[in-house]
C-alpha cells in the first residue's frame, strides 16, 4: 500500500469510527507506530484530522471546517459518483444554481455541451471552469470571497438571488440530520445557501457520506426544503433510513 493510499484509509476509518488510535492503526495496516504518526501529521496539516493523545479525530467531529484544498483532496471517487448521478437532474434547458463546493465543482466539469443553460454560481473557481462553454450563460454572484471555501458571500451575493428563480439548485452542505436539517459552520455562507434554496423550484443536495448525521452552527434549510439528496454508497444505512423516514428522497451511488 502506498503512503497516499494508507492515509486515505486512515481518514476513512477515522470518519467511520469517530477517532483512530496509533497502536490499532499500526497493527491493522502492518506498519510501525512511527509511520502512523507521520501519516497523522500529514493529515493534520491537510486540515482533515486533528491530533489528540494516542491518535486523531476527524475535524468534522470537532466542529472545525477544513479548507477547500483539503476537502478537494479526499473522497474523490465518491464525489465523482455523486456528480455523475446529479447529471440526470440537470434540465435540458433553463436555469440552475451551482453552490460553491468540491462536489458541485465536479458536476460543473460534467455539464453537457449540448444544452442551453443559464448557470448561477457563487464560486469564481466554478465560473472560470464554465466560462469557456459556448452553450452556457454563466452568472457569477459578487460579494466577499470567503478564504476557506472561495465562495462569494454577504449582500452582493444575496441581493441578486432575491430576484432570481431557477429550475434546480444544486447545493452542498457540511451536515444534514433529522434533528437540525442542513447546516454549515459559517453564518454568511448559510445565508447564501438559504437564498439559493428559496430561489429554486427544486433543491438537490450533493453530500458524501461523512456529512450525514452531522450538525454545524448555522442552519440554512429544513429537510422539507430538500427534493433530493444524492450521496455515496458508503452512507450509513440507519442514517439514510432516518432521512427517508423524514420524507427525504435519497439516492446512493
UniProtKB/TrEMBL annotation:
<keyword id="KW-0804">Transcription</keyword>
<dbReference type="InterPro" id="IPR036390">
    <property type="entry name" value="WH_DNA-bd_sf"/>
</dbReference>
<dbReference type="InterPro" id="IPR036388">
    <property type="entry name" value="WH-like_DNA-bd_sf"/>
</dbReference>
<protein>
    <recommendedName>
        <fullName>Lactose phosphotransferase system repressor</fullName>
    </recommendedName>
</protein>
<keyword id="KW-0805">Transcription regulation</keyword>
<dbReference type="InterPro" id="IPR050313">
    <property type="entry name" value="Carb_Metab_HTH_regulators"/>
</dbReference>
<dbReference type="InterPro" id="IPR014036">
    <property type="entry name" value="DeoR-like_C"/>
</dbReference>
<feature type="domain" description="HTH deoR-type">
    <location>
        <begin position="3"/>
        <end position="58"/>
    </location>
</feature>
<dbReference type="Pfam" id="PF08220">
    <property type="entry name" value="HTH_DeoR"/>
</dbReference>
<keyword id="KW-0238">DNA-binding</keyword>
<dbReference type="Pfam" id="PF00455">
    <property type="entry name" value="DeoRC"/>
</dbReference>
<dbReference type="InterPro" id="IPR037171">
    <property type="entry name" value="NagB/RpiA_transferase-like"/>
</dbReference>
<dbReference type="InterPro" id="IPR001034">
    <property type="entry name" value="DeoR_HTH"/>
</dbReference>
<dbReference type="GO" id="GO:0003677">
    <property type="term" value="F:DNA binding"/>
</dbReference>
<comment type="function">
    <text>Repressor of the lactose catabolism operon. Galactose-6-phosphate is the inducer.</text>
</comment>
<keyword id="KW-0678">Repressor</keyword>
Amino acid at each position: 500500500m502506498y503512503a497516499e493510499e494508507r492515509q486515505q484509509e486512515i481518514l476513512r476509518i477515522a470518519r467511520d469510527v469517530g477517532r483512530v488510535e496509533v497502536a490499532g492503526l499500526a497493527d491493522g495496516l502492518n506498519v510501525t507506530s512511527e509511520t502512523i504518526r507521520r501519516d497523522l501529521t500529514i493529515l493534520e496539516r491537510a486540515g482533515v484530522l486533528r491530533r489528540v493523545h494516542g491518535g486523531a479525530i476527524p475535524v468534522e467531529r470537532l466542529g472545525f471546517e477544513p479548507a477547500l484544498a483539503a476537502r478537494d483532496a479526499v473522497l474523490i471517487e465518491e464525489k465523482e459518483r455523486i456528480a455523475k448521478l446529479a447529471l440526470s437532474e440537470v434540465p435540458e434547458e433553463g436555469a440552475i444554481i451551482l453552490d460553491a463546493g468540491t462536489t458541485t465543482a465536479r458536476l460543473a466539469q460534467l455539464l453537457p455541451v449540448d444544452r442551453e443553460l443559464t448557470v448561477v454560481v457563487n464560486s469564481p473557481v466554478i465560473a472560470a471552469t464554465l466560462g469557456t462553454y459556448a452553450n452556457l450563460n454563466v452568472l457569477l454572484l459578487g460579494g466577499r470571497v470567503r478564504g476557506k471555501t472561495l465562495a462569494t458571500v454577504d449582500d452582493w451575493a444575496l441581493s441578486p438571488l432575491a430576484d432570481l428563480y431557477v429550475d434546480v439548485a444544486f447545493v452542498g452542505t457540511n451536515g444534514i440530520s433529522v434533528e437540525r436539517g442542513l447546516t454549515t459552520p459559517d453564518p454568511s455562507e448559510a445565508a447564501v445557501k438559504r437564498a439559493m434554496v428559496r430561489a429554486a423550484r427544486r433543491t438537490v443536495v450533493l453530500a458524501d457520506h461523512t456529512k450525514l448525521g452531522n450538525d454545524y452552527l448555522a442552519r440554512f434549510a429544513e429537510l422539507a426544503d430538500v427534493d433530493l439528496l444524492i450521496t455515496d454508497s458508503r452512507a450509513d444505512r440507519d442514517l439514510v433510513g432516518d432521512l427517508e423516514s423524514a420524507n427525504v428522497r435519497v439516492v446512493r451511488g
